[in-house]
Structures are given as C-alpha cells and as structure tokens.
Amino acid sequence: MKKTNMSKRVRIMETLDMYKHSTRQMTRKDRDASNVTELALHLVQSVIDAAVTFVEEAKNPIKNIKWITHGAFTAERGRREIERFILTWEHQDRWVHHTEFIQREDWIHSFHYIYHVQWSPGSARIPVPRTSASAFFTIKITKSKPPDAPIDVSYIFEGQSLVQRPGMLRFRENWLREIVESKHILLESVPF
User: What pLDDT, in 10s, does the model give residues 132-148?
Assistant: First the structure.
C-alpha cells in the first residue's frame, strides 16, 4: 500500500509541477506579448505624433522673411530686419520687446553684428516687470561674399545652448515664459 501511495504522490507532484511549469511559460508568453504590445503602441503613437506635426506644419509653415543682402546692410537696417522677423512669431500680445544694437566684432573673414532683444510680460497690474527674457541675434557679414549675397543670421535665447537660424525652427512662447519663471523662482529664493 505504501508503494501505491507513493506512486500516486509522485504522479500528483509531477502533475502539479507540470502545471507550475506551464503557468510560468504562459506568464513569459504573456509578458513577451505585453512587451510587444507596449512597443507597438509606442511605435503607433510616435507615427501619429509625427503625422500630426507634419500636417500642422503643412497648414501653418514656419515663417521667415526675405533677409537683406550684404550690400544693403547697415547696423540700423539689421535691427529693423530683426524686428520684422520677430513680427512673424506667434505670441500673446502681453509680451513686449525691445531690440538694440550692441556691438560689431571684426573677425578675420567677417564682421559680426550683435543685437539684444529683451522680452518682458507687461500687464496693467505690473506695468514694469521684475524680470525679462533675452535673445541675442548675430548677423554675420562675410568680407569675401558679393554684395547681392544674403546676410547670415543666427540667434540664441539666454540660458539655452541651441543656436537657431530663421526659418528652421518654430518660435515657442514657452521659451520666454520658462526663462522669466526661472528668474522669478531665483529671486524669491534670495532674501533681500
């Protein structure tokens, strides 16, 4: 009798072990299927995001202006061109800005004209804001280019390392907002 009991136990244990093993396999299969599903969902979401961006840019292309040529350039005309370019940016009316020529740098093969554009969010409650955001434009005039060649323009926002070129990237109002908000946080943390 003990042998029969023992063989029943072994068969039952083997059966239980087989169920455990198949459960583990199903879990692995389910996990693999879950990973594939997550990857597929991520891929589909990326494709949808890219399509939406493509359609938005087709409907609302990145705006730029036709910049003046080397021969028509003066420091004041460069400032006016920057103002004209900034007018193509979409932002709320509460943002006001001022553009000023800072300096001319004489390099070996070119002149660099540096401009400072200062932005601030004005309001009736606070007409003179405590903080502002800055953008620095550089107009490069190459000494060896013909007078009918267009000027080379680049700009950078304070606190950012990305050098931007007109017509390459859409202006985002939140860039200004983030700069101003980070300055507010810094000012609030410093006791006076």
Answer: 899 999 999 999 999 99
